[in-house]
Amino acid sequence: MKVGLLYPSSNTYPGISFDFMDGLNALLGHQQIASHFNIIKEGIGFGAAEKEVYMKAEKLLLTEDVDVLVIYADEKVTELLNPLIMASGKLLMVINPGANYPHNWISQPGVVHLSLQQAFMCRLAGGLAAAAGNGYAAYVSSYYDCGYLHGAAIVQQLLQQGGNIRYNYINRQSYNDSFEIGALTEFLSTDKECSNLVCVFDTMPAQLFYKHLAAYDAGRMLNVFASPMMLEAGAVAALNGKQRYRVTGFTPWHSALPGTGNITFMQQCKRPANIFSLLGWETGLMLAALLPAGTIHDNEAAVQLLKDTPLQSPRGIMLLDDATHFYTAPFTKITYEANSSTPQTEYITEYTNGWKAFTAEQIEGHVTGWTNTYLCY
Asked: Is residue 45 included in any domain, yes or no?
């Protein structure tokens, strides 16, 4: 099977493409099926140059005549490829962290989506914040992170569940010694009724945020409702057991997940396993499921094959949602109590109702934001 791969790059995560390929190669090698695939690769940088992405996709489909096109890019950009995929009859696999989501969830013929479901997990965190105390919260993010819809997801669910946003704090500092949260702590000192922080940060600013918040004495318990990247190992390393606040959120994957699937994944990767190698491994699972189809000329039949084939991911059983063509998988709720560096974990396998509610909502009006793939900057 001939596979075209449009891979990303990132200054913040320079190993992203290497990790992704490590996970993909590890899966194909583990299942001893690598020889069945010819993978032709093209780089697309941060994924924001729509014309370049389109031309490289067209080249792989027309000149290289690939059976499957795998693209690691954002939904905003990959939507432009739908007419090309429909005309070609080939299969498109869209891979990204899931910080953005479609304006509507109508599935497209021949297109499947694999993500870390980050916006969905932000939505769930927003629901927790609404139920915490009086539901009053401050929205806290960085100038970069707030440019994706996961921020809207956490805020909208808080508001829908009866919560209230009392303050918006967008940090514009560099991720170095100049980073500070003075305006936020000033607000918290003024508004004593607000004890909840709904936060969306990448790992590096999250670590800085945790450190600065730990140095602040609010005189009351603060609750941080965190986006998934704030629960990555590099971020929670700042939770050294001396912080005077509680952190709660959801994460798609962590290294301590039980089960042989996760252990095998981590052992088979040559590089340290992470969320990018996880997406590579899971892409390999999808490709392996397509092997019985051989050369793909009917992309709708290929999608149906994937719908009929549950995938055993390191996360757990991964299913292709019939209505949206997005993969869903179990995830973990993580809580760090104040003055503790030991996480409390709850593995979530029943999420169907929450997912259906999330995908039933459509975005109305004009939406602005970054076009580069989340974490590619």
From this structure: yes
